[in-house]
Amino acid sequence: xxxxxxxxxxxxxxxxxxxxxxxxxxxxxxxxxxxxxxxxxxxxxxxxxxxxxxxxxxxxxxxxxxxxxxxxxxxxxxxxxxxxxxxxxxxxxxxxxxxxxxxxxxxxxxxxxxxxxxxxxxxxxxxxxxxxxxxxxxxxxxxxxxxxxxxxxxxxxxxxxxxxxxxxxxxxxxxxxxxxxxxxxxxxxxxxxxxxxxxxxxxxxxxxxxxxxxxxxxxxxxxxxxxxxxxxxxxxxxxxxxxxxxxxxxxxxxxxxxxxxxxxxxxxxxxxxxxxxxxxxxxxxxxxxxxxxxxxxxxxxxxxx
Amino acid sequence: xxxxxxxxxxxxxxxxxxxxxxxxxxxxxxxxxxxxxxxxxxxxxxxxxxxxxxxxxxxxxxxxxxxxxxxxxxxxxxxxxxxxxxxxxxxxxxxxxxxxxxxxxxxxxxxxxxxxxxxxxxxxxxxxxxxxxxxxxxxxxxxxxxxxxxxxxxxxxxxxxxxxxxxxxxxxxxxxxxxxxxxxxxxxxxxxxxxxxxxxxxxxxxxxxxxxxxxxxxxxxxxxxxxxxxxxxxxxxxxxxxxxxxxxxxxxxxxxxxxxxxxxxxxxxxxxxxxxxxxxxxxxxxxxxxxxxxxxxxxxxxxxx
Lengths: 305, 305
Fold this sequence. Notes:
Chain A is α/β, with parallel strands linked by helices. Chain A has helices spanning 30-38, 56-64, 127-137, 148-153, 155-164, 172-179, 184-195, 233-248, 253-270, 284-297, and strands spanning 5-8, 12-18, 21-28, 44-50, 67-68, 72-74, 81-86, 93-99, 119-122, 141-144, 167-171, 198-202, 208-212, 215-219. Chain A has a single domain, classed as UDP-N-acetylmuramoyl-L-alanine:D-glutamate ligase (3-Layer(aba) Sandwich).
Protein backbone atom coordinates (compact mmCIF):
# COMPACT_ATOMS: atom_id res chain seq x y z
CA UNK A 1 0.00 0.00 0.00
CA UNK A 2 1.28 3.45 -0.86
CA UNK A 3 2.31 5.78 1.96
CA UNK A 4 -0.27 8.38 3.05
CA UNK A 5 2.33 11.18 2.74
CA UNK A 6 5.64 11.83 1.00
CA UNK A 7 7.80 14.95 1.13
CA UNK A 8 10.59 16.22 -1.08
CA UNK A 9 12.90 18.37 1.01
CA UNK A 10 16.32 18.81 2.53
CA UNK A 11 17.92 16.89 5.36
CA UNK A 12 20.60 19.17 6.72
CA UNK A 13 23.12 19.89 9.41
CA UNK A 14 22.52 23.43 10.66
CA UNK A 15 24.65 25.82 12.65
CA UNK A 16 22.39 28.37 14.29
CA UNK A 17 23.03 31.20 16.69
CA UNK A 18 20.33 33.18 18.51
CA UNK A 19 20.45 35.45 21.57
CA UNK A 20 19.65 32.28 23.56
CA UNK A 21 22.55 30.10 22.46
CA UNK A 22 24.18 28.29 19.59
CA UNK A 23 24.12 24.82 18.05
CA UNK A 24 26.63 23.43 15.56
CA UNK A 25 25.83 20.84 12.88
CA UNK A 26 22.47 20.13 14.47
CA UNK A 27 19.74 18.15 12.72
CA UNK A 28 17.77 20.42 10.38
CA UNK A 29 16.38 20.78 6.87
CA UNK A 30 12.89 21.22 5.45
CA UNK A 31 12.29 17.48 4.98
CA UNK A 32 13.35 16.77 8.56
CA UNK A 33 11.13 19.39 10.16
CA UNK A 34 8.23 18.54 7.86
CA UNK A 35 8.21 14.80 8.47
CA UNK A 36 8.87 15.12 12.20
CA UNK A 37 5.84 17.44 12.50
CA UNK A 38 3.72 15.16 10.30
CA UNK A 39 4.71 12.18 12.48
CA UNK A 40 2.26 13.34 15.16
CA UNK A 41 -0.53 12.37 12.78
CA UNK A 42 0.73 9.95 10.13
CA UNK A 43 3.58 7.94 8.67
CA UNK A 44 5.45 9.61 5.83
CA UNK A 45 8.43 9.14 3.55
CA UNK A 46 11.17 11.65 2.69
CA UNK A 47 12.86 12.06 -0.67
CA UNK A 48 16.20 13.71 0.05
CA UNK A 49 19.99 13.31 0.11
CA UNK A 50 22.61 13.23 2.86
CA UNK A 51 26.40 13.04 2.83
CA UNK A 52 28.84 10.56 4.34
CA UNK A 53 29.14 12.71 7.48
CA UNK A 54 25.43 12.53 8.38
CA UNK A 55 25.09 10.77 11.76
CA UNK A 56 23.23 7.48 11.60
CA UNK A 57 21.54 8.36 14.93
CA UNK A 58 19.55 11.14 13.21
CA UNK A 59 18.15 8.65 10.69
CA UNK A 60 17.34 6.27 13.52
CA UNK A 61 15.60 9.10 15.38
CA UNK A 62 13.38 9.87 12.38
CA UNK A 63 12.65 6.19 11.78
CA UNK A 64 11.67 5.89 15.45
CA UNK A 65 9.06 8.56 14.77
CA UNK A 66 7.56 6.49 11.95
CA UNK A 67 9.36 8.29 9.14
CA UNK A 68 10.36 6.14 6.16
CA UNK A 69 13.88 7.16 5.13
CA UNK A 70 14.32 4.75 2.24
CA UNK A 71 14.03 7.78 -0.09
CA UNK A 72 16.97 9.50 1.61
CA UNK A 73 20.00 8.76 -0.54
CA UNK A 74 23.44 8.71 1.08
CA UNK A 75 25.83 10.28 -1.46
CA UNK A 76 29.56 10.86 -1.56
CA UNK A 77 30.57 14.16 0.03
CA UNK A 78 29.25 16.27 2.89
CA UNK A 79 25.66 16.89 3.97
CA UNK A 80 23.92 20.15 3.05
CA UNK A 81 24.90 22.71 5.69
CA UNK A 82 23.15 25.99 6.55
CA UNK A 83 24.53 28.51 8.97
CA UNK A 84 22.38 31.35 10.21
CA UNK A 85 22.00 33.88 12.97
CA UNK A 86 19.01 35.54 14.60
CA UNK A 87 19.76 38.77 16.39
CA UNK A 88 17.41 41.00 18.39
CA UNK A 89 14.54 40.47 15.95
CA UNK A 90 13.83 36.74 16.09
CA UNK A 91 11.49 37.07 13.10
CA UNK A 92 14.27 37.25 10.51
CA UNK A 93 17.34 35.04 10.06
CA UNK A 94 20.59 36.27 8.60
CA UNK A 95 22.16 33.55 6.46
CA UNK A 96 25.88 33.38 7.16
CA UNK A 97 26.75 30.41 4.96
CA UNK A 98 25.04 27.93 2.65
CA UNK A 99 27.13 24.89 1.72
CA UNK A 100 25.06 22.93 -0.80
CA UNK A 101 27.52 19.99 -0.75
CA UNK A 102 25.64 16.81 -1.83
CA UNK A 103 22.55 18.91 -2.60
CA UNK A 104 24.33 20.54 -5.57
CA UNK A 105 24.09 17.40 -7.73
CA UNK A 106 20.90 16.03 -6.12
CA UNK A 107 18.70 13.96 -8.42
CA UNK A 108 15.66 12.86 -6.43
CA UNK A 109 15.18 9.08 -6.45
CA UNK A 110 11.61 8.17 -5.58
CA UNK A 111 11.16 4.66 -4.10
CA UNK A 112 8.55 2.60 -5.93
CA UNK A 113 6.20 2.42 -2.95
CA UNK A 114 6.11 6.23 -2.67
CA UNK A 115 4.31 6.40 -6.02
CA UNK A 116 0.57 7.01 -5.90
CA UNK A 117 0.68 8.23 -2.31
CA UNK A 118 -2.28 10.26 -1.08
CA UNK A 119 -0.41 13.52 -0.22
CA UNK A 120 2.85 14.92 -1.58
CA UNK A 121 4.61 17.98 -0.19
CA UNK A 122 7.27 19.67 -2.31
CA UNK A 123 9.28 21.75 0.16
CA UNK A 124 11.34 24.74 -0.98
CA UNK A 125 13.77 23.42 -3.59
CA UNK A 126 14.56 24.02 -7.28
CA UNK A 127 11.17 24.01 -9.11
CA UNK A 128 12.69 21.83 -11.82
CA UNK A 129 13.14 19.09 -9.21
CA UNK A 130 9.65 19.79 -7.86
CA UNK A 131 8.22 19.16 -11.35
CA UNK A 132 10.20 15.93 -11.74
CA UNK A 133 8.97 14.57 -8.42
CA UNK A 134 5.39 15.66 -9.17
CA UNK A 135 5.56 13.59 -12.36
CA UNK A 136 7.07 10.60 -10.67
CA UNK A 137 5.02 10.43 -7.47
CA UNK A 138 1.61 11.17 -9.02
CA UNK A 139 0.01 11.83 -5.65
CA UNK A 140 -3.72 12.39 -5.28
CA UNK A 141 -3.07 15.79 -3.67
CA UNK A 142 0.20 17.73 -4.07
CA UNK A 143 1.25 20.91 -2.27
CA UNK A 144 4.35 23.06 -2.62
CA UNK A 145 6.43 25.72 -0.90
CA UNK A 146 9.14 27.95 -2.46
CA UNK A 147 11.41 30.89 -1.64
CA UNK A 148 12.35 34.28 -3.06
CA UNK A 149 15.43 32.83 -4.82
CA UNK A 150 13.26 30.71 -7.15
CA UNK A 151 10.74 33.50 -7.68
CA UNK A 152 13.60 35.63 -8.93
CA UNK A 153 15.53 33.02 -10.90
CA UNK A 154 12.97 30.45 -12.14
CA UNK A 155 9.57 32.11 -12.14
CA UNK A 156 8.31 30.22 -15.21
CA UNK A 157 9.11 26.78 -13.80
CA UNK A 158 7.67 27.85 -10.45
CA UNK A 159 4.46 28.98 -12.16
CA UNK A 160 4.21 25.53 -13.77
CA UNK A 161 4.45 24.00 -10.29
CA UNK A 162 1.74 26.38 -9.01
CA UNK A 163 -0.48 25.43 -11.95
CA UNK A 164 -0.16 21.73 -11.28
CA UNK A 165 -0.41 21.41 -7.48
CA UNK A 166 -3.63 21.39 -5.48
CA UNK A 167 -2.17 23.48 -2.65
CA UNK A 168 0.42 26.23 -2.08
CA UNK A 169 1.97 26.99 1.32
CA UNK A 170 4.27 30.02 1.24
CA UNK A 171 5.50 32.94 3.35
CA UNK A 172 3.85 36.36 3.26
CA UNK A 173 6.97 37.97 1.77
CA UNK A 174 7.10 35.40 -1.02
CA UNK A 175 3.38 35.77 -1.75
CA UNK A 176 3.75 39.54 -2.02
CA UNK A 177 6.84 39.19 -4.23
CA UNK A 178 5.45 36.57 -6.62
CA UNK A 179 2.16 38.49 -7.03
CA UNK A 180 3.72 41.94 -7.18
CA UNK A 181 1.34 43.39 -4.60
CA UNK A 182 1.83 44.39 -0.95
CA UNK A 183 -1.79 43.38 -0.24
CA UNK A 184 -1.81 39.82 1.13
CA UNK A 185 -5.53 39.34 0.53
CA UNK A 186 -5.08 40.18 -3.13
CA UNK A 187 -1.96 37.98 -3.29
CA UNK A 188 -3.71 35.01 -1.70
CA UNK A 189 -6.57 35.23 -4.17
CA UNK A 190 -4.20 35.63 -7.13
CA UNK A 191 -2.25 32.54 -6.09
CA UNK A 192 -5.46 30.57 -5.66
CA UNK A 193 -6.60 31.60 -9.12
CA UNK A 194 -3.47 30.23 -10.85
CA UNK A 195 -4.57 26.61 -10.67
CA UNK A 196 -7.65 26.83 -8.45
CA UNK A 197 -5.29 25.93 -5.59
CA UNK A 198 -5.98 26.03 -1.89
CA UNK A 199 -3.49 28.58 -0.61
CA UNK A 200 -2.00 29.01 2.84
CA UNK A 201 0.10 32.10 3.53
CA UNK A 202 2.42 31.75 6.53
CA UNK A 203 2.97 34.97 8.51
CA UNK A 204 5.29 33.82 11.30
CA UNK A 205 4.29 35.45 14.60
CA UNK A 206 1.10 36.74 12.93
CA UNK A 207 -0.21 33.27 12.12
CA UNK A 208 -1.55 32.08 8.78
CA UNK A 209 -4.23 32.88 6.20
CA UNK A 210 -6.15 30.45 4.01
CA UNK A 211 -7.64 31.28 0.60
CA UNK A 212 -9.76 29.36 -1.88
CA UNK A 213 -12.36 31.01 -4.10
CA UNK A 214 -14.71 32.77 -1.64
CA UNK A 215 -13.37 30.87 1.37
CA UNK A 216 -11.09 32.65 3.81
CA UNK A 217 -9.71 31.65 7.19
CA UNK A 218 -7.31 33.40 9.55
CA UNK A 219 -5.38 31.64 12.33
CA UNK A 220 -3.38 33.79 14.76
CA UNK A 221 0.12 32.83 15.82
CA UNK A 222 0.20 30.86 19.06
CA UNK A 223 1.45 33.30 21.72
CA UNK A 224 5.05 32.34 22.57
CA UNK A 225 6.87 34.75 24.88
CA UNK A 226 10.10 32.72 24.70
CA UNK A 227 11.13 32.10 21.11
CA UNK A 228 14.49 30.32 21.33
CA UNK A 229 15.05 29.41 17.66
CA UNK A 230 12.41 29.79 14.93
CA UNK A 231 14.39 27.70 12.41
CA UNK A 232 12.12 25.09 10.86
CA UNK A 233 8.87 26.62 12.11
CA UNK A 234 7.49 27.11 8.59
CA UNK A 235 8.28 23.55 7.48
CA UNK A 236 6.91 22.20 10.77
CA UNK A 237 3.73 24.19 10.20
CA UNK A 238 3.41 22.59 6.77
CA UNK A 239 4.18 19.15 8.21
CA UNK A 240 1.60 19.46 10.99
CA UNK A 241 -1.01 20.81 8.58
CA UNK A 242 -0.55 18.24 5.81
CA UNK A 243 0.15 15.42 8.25
CA UNK A 244 -3.20 16.08 9.88
CA UNK A 245 -4.91 16.22 6.48
CA UNK A 246 -3.26 12.92 5.49
CA UNK A 247 -4.44 11.28 8.71
CA UNK A 248 -8.05 12.18 7.96
CA UNK A 249 -7.79 11.89 4.20
CA UNK A 250 -9.92 14.87 3.22
CA UNK A 251 -8.72 18.02 1.41
CA UNK A 252 -11.93 19.96 2.06
CA UNK A 253 -11.77 23.56 3.25
CA UNK A 254 -13.32 22.77 6.66
CA UNK A 255 -10.68 20.11 7.32
CA UNK A 256 -7.87 22.37 6.11
CA UNK A 257 -8.87 25.02 8.69
CA UNK A 258 -8.57 22.50 11.49
CA UNK A 259 -5.29 21.19 10.09
CA UNK A 260 -3.87 24.73 9.94
CA UNK A 261 -4.45 24.99 13.68
CA UNK A 262 -2.64 21.66 14.17
CA UNK A 263 0.26 22.96 12.08
CA UNK A 264 0.37 26.16 14.13
CA UNK A 265 0.52 24.19 17.37
CA UNK A 266 3.50 22.14 16.22
CA UNK A 267 5.30 25.19 14.81
CA UNK A 268 4.86 26.91 18.18
CA UNK A 269 6.64 24.05 19.97
CA UNK A 270 9.48 24.03 17.42
CA UNK A 271 10.25 27.70 18.20
CA UNK A 272 10.80 26.91 21.86
CA UNK A 273 14.04 24.98 21.34
CA UNK A 274 17.06 24.67 19.05
CA UNK A 275 16.99 22.21 16.15
CA UNK A 276 14.19 19.66 16.77
CA UNK A 277 14.47 19.92 20.58
CA UNK A 278 11.29 21.94 21.06
CA UNK A 279 9.11 19.29 19.45
CA UNK A 280 10.84 15.90 19.55
CA UNK A 281 9.54 14.79 22.95
CA UNK A 282 6.07 16.27 22.64
CA UNK A 283 3.04 14.01 23.08
CA UNK A 284 -0.51 13.87 21.73
CA UNK A 285 -1.58 15.49 25.00
CA UNK A 286 0.74 18.45 24.33
CA UNK A 287 -0.83 18.86 20.88
CA UNK A 288 -4.33 18.62 22.31
CA UNK A 289 -3.53 21.21 24.99
CA UNK A 290 -2.45 23.95 22.60
CA UNK A 291 -5.22 23.03 20.17
CA UNK A 292 -7.68 23.75 22.97
CA UNK A 293 -5.82 26.99 23.77
CA UNK A 294 -6.31 28.06 20.15
CA UNK A 295 -10.08 27.73 20.51
CA UNK A 296 -9.95 30.03 23.52
CA UNK A 297 -7.67 32.63 22.05
CA UNK A 298 -9.93 33.43 19.11
CA UNK A 299 -13.27 33.02 20.90
CA UNK A 300 -15.61 35.98 21.28
CA UNK A 301 -19.28 36.50 22.03
CA UNK A 302 -21.35 36.01 18.87
CA UNK A 303 -24.47 37.95 19.87
CA UNK A 304 -25.05 41.09 17.78
CA UNK A 305 -22.85 44.08 18.67
CA UNK B 1 -25.72 63.54 33.21
CA UNK B 2 -22.10 63.03 32.21
CA UNK B 3 -21.33 61.77 28.70
CA UNK B 4 -20.62 58.03 28.33
CA UNK B 5 -17.40 58.76 26.41
CA UNK B 6 -14.93 61.61 25.94
CA UNK B 7 -11.81 61.68 23.79
CA UNK B 8 -8.77 63.94 23.77
CA UNK B 9 -7.35 64.04 20.26
CA UNK B 10 -6.68 66.07 17.17
CA UNK B 11 -9.12 67.48 14.65
CA UNK B 12 -7.11 68.02 11.51
CA UNK B 13 -7.09 68.84 7.84
CA UNK B 14 -5.09 66.16 6.05
CA UNK B 15 -3.48 66.02 2.64
CA UNK B 16 -3.01 62.39 1.69
CA UNK B 17 -1.74 60.70 -1.43
CA UNK B 18 -1.95 56.97 -2.15
CA UNK B 19 -1.65 54.96 -5.39
CA UNK B 20 -5.45 55.35 -5.60
CA UNK B 21 -5.70 59.13 -5.50
CA UNK B 22 -5.16 62.26 -3.48
CA UNK B 23 -7.18 64.47 -1.13
CA UNK B 24 -6.24 67.96 0.04
CA UNK B 25 -7.21 69.46 3.38
CA UNK B 26 -9.67 66.66 4.02
CA UNK B 27 -11.25 66.03 7.42
CA UNK B 28 -8.89 64.01 9.61
CA UNK B 29 -7.28 63.78 13.04
CA UNK B 30 -7.34 61.19 15.80
CA UNK B 31 -10.29 62.79 17.64
CA UNK B 32 -12.31 62.91 14.43
CA UNK B 33 -11.74 59.28 13.45
CA UNK B 34 -12.20 58.11 17.03
CA UNK B 35 -15.50 59.84 17.70
CA UNK B 36 -16.94 59.06 14.27
CA UNK B 37 -16.21 55.35 14.85
CA UNK B 38 -17.60 55.50 18.38
CA UNK B 39 -20.77 57.17 17.05
CA UNK B 40 -21.99 53.79 15.75
CA UNK B 41 -22.47 52.79 19.38
CA UNK B 42 -22.64 55.86 21.63
CA UNK B 43 -22.59 59.63 21.99
CA UNK B 44 -19.21 61.12 22.81
CA UNK B 45 -17.47 64.46 23.30
CA UNK B 46 -14.13 65.59 21.84
CA UNK B 47 -11.56 67.78 23.56
CA UNK B 48 -9.54 69.39 20.79
CA UNK B 49 -8.67 72.59 18.95
CA UNK B 50 -9.27 73.88 15.42
CA UNK B 51 -8.19 77.03 13.59
CA UNK B 52 -10.14 79.78 11.89
CA UNK B 53 -9.94 77.95 8.57
CA UNK B 54 -11.72 74.80 9.76
CA UNK B 55 -14.95 74.39 7.75
CA UNK B 56 -18.10 74.67 9.85
CA UNK B 57 -19.62 71.86 7.76
CA UNK B 58 -17.17 69.35 9.26
CA UNK B 59 -18.33 70.27 12.79
CA UNK B 60 -21.95 70.01 11.65
CA UNK B 61 -21.18 66.58 10.14
CA UNK B 62 -19.75 65.31 13.44
CA UNK B 63 -22.64 66.84 15.42
CA UNK B 64 -25.05 65.09 13.07
CA UNK B 65 -23.43 61.82 14.11
CA UNK B 66 -24.11 62.55 17.79
CA UNK B 67 -20.68 63.92 18.58
CA UNK B 68 -20.57 66.74 21.13
CA UNK B 69 -18.08 69.34 19.87
CA UNK B 70 -18.41 71.82 22.72
CA UNK B 71 -14.90 70.74 23.82
CA UNK B 72 -13.45 71.68 20.43
CA UNK B 73 -11.97 75.15 20.85
CA UNK B 74 -11.71 77.42 17.84
CA UNK B 75 -8.40 79.30 18.19
CA UNK B 76 -6.68 82.03 16.19
CA UNK B 77 -4.53 80.63 13.40
CA UNK B 78 -4.71 77.63 11.12
CA UNK B 79 -5.91 74.09 11.87
CA UNK B 80 -3.41 71.29 12.50
CA UNK B 81 -2.39 69.95 9.08
CA UNK B 82 -0.77 66.59 8.27
CA UNK B 83 0.49 65.68 4.86
CA UNK B 84 1.43 62.08 4.07
CA UNK B 85 1.95 59.64 1.27
CA UNK B 86 1.49 55.88 0.95
CA UNK B 87 3.40 54.27 -1.86
CA UNK B 88 3.42 50.64 -2.94
CA UNK B 89 3.30 49.36 0.63
CA UNK B 90 0.00 50.67 2.02
CA UNK B 91 1.01 49.55 5.51
CA UNK B 92 3.37 52.47 6.15
CA UNK B 93 2.82 56.21 5.62
CA UNK B 94 5.61 58.60 4.78
CA UNK B 95 5.01 61.93 6.55
CA UNK B 96 5.73 64.77 4.14
CA UNK B 97 4.76 67.68 6.39
CA UNK B 98 3.38 68.29 9.87
CA UNK B 99 2.10 71.84 10.49
CA UNK B 100 1.12 71.94 14.17
CA UNK B 101 -0.45 75.42 13.78
CA UNK B 102 -3.07 75.89 16.58
CA UNK B 103 -1.99 72.56 18.12
CA UNK B 104 1.39 74.07 19.10
CA UNK B 105 -0.11 76.15 21.92
CA UNK B 106 -3.04 73.82 22.67
CA UNK B 107 -4.23 73.84 26.28
CA UNK B 108 -7.11 71.37 26.55
CA UNK B 109 -10.28 72.94 27.97
CA UNK B 110 -12.60 70.29 29.35
CA UNK B 111 -16.31 71.28 29.43
CA UNK B 112 -17.86 70.83 32.90
CA UNK B 113 -20.28 68.13 31.72
CA UNK B 114 -17.43 66.00 30.37
CA UNK B 115 -16.17 65.50 33.92
CA UNK B 116 -16.93 62.17 35.53
CA UNK B 117 -17.74 60.51 32.22
CA UNK B 118 -17.69 56.73 32.10
CA UNK B 119 -14.91 56.27 29.46
CA UNK B 120 -12.06 58.56 28.49
CA UNK B 121 -9.74 57.97 25.53
CA UNK B 122 -6.47 59.86 25.37
CA UNK B 123 -5.39 59.66 21.73
CA UNK B 124 -1.77 60.09 20.71
CA UNK B 125 -0.70 63.53 21.98
CA UNK B 126 1.88 64.99 24.39
CA UNK B 127 1.70 62.82 27.56
CA UNK B 128 1.83 66.00 29.66
CA UNK B 129 -1.53 66.96 28.16
CA UNK B 130 -2.79 63.41 28.62
CA UNK B 131 -1.99 63.65 32.36
CA UNK B 132 -3.75 67.04 32.67
CA UNK B 133 -6.89 65.74 31.02
CA UNK B 134 -6.81 62.53 33.09
CA UNK B 135 -6.80 64.74 36.23
CA UNK B 136 -9.56 66.96 35.00
CA UNK B 137 -11.98 64.42 33.51
CA UNK B 138 -11.71 61.81 36.27
CA UNK B 139 -13.40 59.15 34.15
CA UNK B 140 -14.32 55.76 35.57
CA UNK B 141 -12.21 54.03 32.90
CA UNK B 142 -9.40 55.75 30.99
CA UNK B 143 -7.43 54.41 28.03
CA UNK B 144 -4.53 55.89 26.08
CA UNK B 145 -2.60 55.66 22.84
CA UNK B 146 0.83 57.14 22.05
CA UNK B 147 3.51 57.20 19.32
CA UNK B 148 7.25 56.63 18.94
CA UNK B 149 7.98 60.37 19.26
CA UNK B 150 6.75 60.43 22.89
CA UNK B 151 8.43 57.13 23.74
CA UNK B 152 11.70 58.70 22.64
CA UNK B 153 11.23 62.21 24.05
CA UNK B 154 8.97 61.87 27.14
CA UNK B 155 9.20 58.31 28.35
CA UNK B 156 8.84 59.21 32.04
CA UNK B 157 5.63 61.18 31.56
CA UNK B 158 4.32 58.47 29.26
CA UNK B 159 5.06 55.84 31.91
CA UNK B 160 3.04 57.92 34.39
CA UNK B 161 0.12 57.83 31.93
CA UNK B 162 0.50 54.04 31.53
CA UNK B 163 0.51 53.65 35.34
CA UNK B 164 -2.69 55.61 35.75
CA UNK B 165 -4.94 54.41 32.91
CA UNK B 166 -6.99 51.23 32.94
CA UNK B 167 -6.28 50.46 29.28
CA UNK B 168 -3.54 50.93 26.66
CA UNK B 169 -4.15 50.75 22.90
CA UNK B 170 -0.94 51.04 20.87
CA UNK B 171 0.71 49.87 17.67
CA UNK B 172 2.97 46.82 17.52
CA UNK B 173 6.02 48.94 16.66
CA UNK B 174 5.42 51.22 19.64
CA UNK B 175 4.89 48.28 21.98
CA UNK B 176 8.16 46.72 20.86
CA UNK B 177 9.99 50.04 21.18
CA UNK B 178 8.65 51.01 24.61
CA UNK B 179 9.33 47.53 26.04
CA UNK B 180 12.69 47.04 24.32
CA UNK B 181 11.78 43.60 22.97
CA UNK B 182 10.88 42.35 19.49
CA UNK B 183 8.54 39.76 21.05
CA UNK B 184 5.00 41.17 21.05
CA UNK B 185 3.72 38.61 23.56
CA UNK B 186 6.39 39.66 26.04
CA UNK B 187 5.72 43.34 25.25
CA UNK B 188 1.96 42.99 25.77
CA UNK B 189 2.47 41.35 29.14
CA UNK B 190 5.05 43.95 30.20
CA UNK B 191 2.68 46.78 29.32
CA UNK B 192 -0.15 45.10 31.19
CA UNK B 193 2.05 44.72 34.27
CA UNK B 194 2.83 48.45 34.46
CA UNK B 195 -0.49 49.41 36.01
CA UNK B 196 -2.44 46.13 35.70
CA UNK B 197 -3.84 47.60 32.48
CA UNK B 198 -5.86 45.86 29.82
CA UNK B 199 -3.66 46.15 26.74
CA UNK B 200 -4.59 46.06 23.07
CA UNK B 201 -1.78 45.93 20.51
CA UNK B 202 -2.82 47.05 17.02
CA UNK B 203 -1.07 45.22 14.16
CA UNK B 204 -2.66 46.82 11.09
CA UNK B 205 -3.35 44.17 8.43
CA UNK B 206 -2.49 41.45 10.99
CA UNK B 207 -5.28 42.45 13.38
CA UNK B 208 -4.99 43.03 17.11
CA UNK B 209 -3.90 41.25 20.30
CA UNK B 210 -5.35 41.63 23.80
CA UNK B 211 -3.46 41.06 27.05
CA UNK B 212 -4.42 41.13 30.70
CA UNK B 213 -2.83 38.88 33.30
CA UNK B 214 -3.42 35.35 31.98
CA UNK B 215 -6.02 36.46 29.45
CA UNK B 216 -5.10 36.61 25.78
CA UNK B 217 -7.15 37.19 22.66
CA UNK B 218 -6.18 37.50 19.01
CA UNK B 219 -8.36 39.08 16.32
CA UNK B 220 -7.23 38.84 12.69
CA UNK B 221 -7.39 41.82 10.37
CA UNK B 222 -10.58 41.90 8.33
CA UNK B 223 -9.59 40.82 4.78
CA UNK B 224 -9.61 43.94 2.57
CA UNK B 225 -8.27 43.45 -0.95
CA UNK B 226 -8.75 47.12 -1.82
CA UNK B 227 -7.11 49.36 0.74
CA UNK B 228 -7.56 52.92 -0.58
CA UNK B 229 -6.24 54.96 2.36
CA UNK B 230 -5.41 53.49 5.78
CA UNK B 231 -5.17 56.93 7.46
CA UNK B 232 -7.21 56.93 10.66
CA UNK B 233 -7.67 53.15 10.82
CA UNK B 234 -5.95 52.87 14.22
CA UNK B 235 -7.99 55.67 15.79
CA UNK B 236 -11.16 54.27 14.24
CA UNK B 237 -10.32 50.87 15.70
CA UNK B 238 -9.97 52.50 19.13
CA UNK B 239 -13.21 54.45 18.62
CA UNK B 240 -15.18 51.39 17.60
CA UNK B 241 -13.74 49.34 20.43
CA UNK B 242 -14.24 51.87 23.22
CA UNK B 243 -17.51 53.14 21.77
CA UNK B 244 -18.89 49.62 21.95
CA UNK B 245 -17.61 49.24 25.51
CA UNK B 246 -19.21 52.56 26.48
CA UNK B 247 -22.54 51.48 24.99
CA UNK B 248 -22.60 48.37 27.16
CA UNK B 249 -20.85 49.86 30.17
CA UNK B 250 -18.64 46.92 31.09
CA UNK B 251 -14.84 46.80 31.00
CA UNK B 252 -14.64 43.05 31.51
CA UNK B 253 -12.32 40.95 29.35
CA UNK B 254 -15.17 39.06 27.64
CA UNK B 255 -16.77 42.34 26.57
CA UNK B 256 -13.46 43.79 25.44
CA UNK B 257 -12.96 40.84 23.05
CA UNK B 258 -16.29 41.51 21.42
CA UNK B 259 -15.58 45.24 21.29
CA UNK B 260 -12.21 44.61 19.60
CA UNK B 261 -14.07 42.84 16.79
CA UNK B 262 -16.40 45.86 16.49
CA UNK B 263 -13.38 48.16 16.33
CA UNK B 264 -11.82 45.97 13.64
CA UNK B 265 -14.99 46.11 11.55
CA UNK B 266 -15.08 49.91 11.59
CA UNK B 267 -11.34 50.21 10.89
CA UNK B 268 -11.81 47.93 7.86
CA UNK B 269 -14.42 50.28 6.40
CA UNK B 270 -12.23 53.35 7.02
CA UNK B 271 -9.44 51.84 4.89
CA UNK B 272 -11.75 51.56 1.89
CA UNK B 273 -12.00 55.31 1.28
CA UNK B 274 -10.10 58.58 1.68
CA UNK B 275 -10.63 60.69 4.80
CA UNK B 276 -13.87 59.58 6.49
CA UNK B 277 -15.51 58.51 3.21
CA UNK B 278 -15.16 54.77 3.83
CA UNK B 279 -17.18 54.89 7.02
CA UNK B 280 -19.38 57.99 7.11
CA UNK B 281 -22.41 56.49 5.37
CA UNK B 282 -22.19 53.04 6.92
CA UNK B 283 -25.19 51.64 8.78
CA UNK B 284 -25.76 49.29 11.71
CA UNK B 285 -26.47 46.61 9.12
CA UNK B 286 -23.02 47.13 7.59
CA UNK B 287 -21.45 46.70 11.03
CA UNK B 288 -23.49 43.59 11.71
CA UNK B 289 -22.53 42.10 8.35
CA UNK B 290 -18.76 42.25 8.91
CA UNK B 291 -19.18 41.26 12.55
CA UNK B 292 -20.82 38.07 11.31
CA UNK B 293 -18.02 37.65 8.74
CA UNK B 294 -15.49 37.80 11.60
CA UNK B 295 -17.16 34.86 13.30
CA UNK B 296 -16.77 32.85 10.11
CA UNK B 297 -13.24 33.80 9.36
CA UNK B 298 -11.83 32.46 12.63
CA UNK B 299 -14.14 29.47 12.99
CA UNK B 300 -12.72 25.94 12.96
CA UNK B 301 -13.85 22.52 14.06
CA UNK B 302 -13.34 22.10 17.80
CA UNK B 303 -13.29 18.30 17.98
CA UNK B 304 -9.90 16.84 18.98
CA UNK B 305 -7.25 16.78 16.23
